[in-house]
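re: ur question from yesterday

yeah so i grabbed the chain u mentioned. its 280 aa long if i counted rite. heres the sequnce exactly as i have it in my notes:
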Amino acid sequence: MPRTKRSASIGVIDPNNIIPNVLTIPDGTVEIHKSEIKRRRYVESVEIPNTVTHIGDHAFKLCCRLTSIVIPNSVKYIGDDAFRECSSLTSIVIPDSVTLIGGGAFYKCSSLMSVVIPNSVTCIGDYAFSWCISLTSVDIPDSVTQISTGAFLDCKSLMSVVIPNGVTCIDEDAFWGCSSLTSVDIPNGVKCIGDYAFRGCSSLTSVVIPDGLREISFGTFGDCSSLTSVVIPDGVTQIGKEAFYDCKSLTSVVIPNSVKCNGDYAFRGCSSLTSVVIPD
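ran it thru and got these structure tokens back, copy pasting raw so excuse formatting
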């Protein structure tokens, strides 16, 4: 029978005869690398010393039994795919020392229900929290100026989100498939909303488009089947292709005089639409 050990430091793990339930990162470690973590499917908890400043790319990827982790205040950077598919991880507190959350950092953490993102974070990478299907709410800090591509894609349990006033751009696919999202306040500072940003938000009932927006992009609110009303401000000059495609509950829309171009199928499938005011 292979010998088991309840706790082991990464530097001494022998993957052939030790099953480490608890990983203790050695004191003095500065960056945690993927290659240092063996037999990752058995890892249940991790002890990280306060010497660590970087959690490297793919560091804890596929640690499917990892349920919780405490990130020390020394950490400044969470790398790409760092906790990707840690399917048992239920919560995480990101300390206020962290400035960057890498792309796909928490991708498919399917049990993750809550996350606290501190004001120190200035960048949330592409698809950072996508497919976190148990995530119910998230507060994005004022320090973030851009919601990256697919950041919360298919977070099907996400019911509310606060987008801070400092955000100027919501990238494509940012909230696509957030089917429990009932409302969203888009601040006036937002100048661009990418393709499919809110597509498939089937519980979204209303949305106020900010005054600073000039274009409603391709498929931005497509398949928002509960959307009953939308206010399009005077500054919008273009409504993109399929922008409100299959918004089956939308009953009326006023298109302002500033709009010069309506894309193909912009309101196709809006079967409840009874009133459309088109500019002269």
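noticed a couple things. The chain has a mean pLDDT of 89. also Residues 188 and 210 are 5 Å apart (CA to CA).
anyway ttyl
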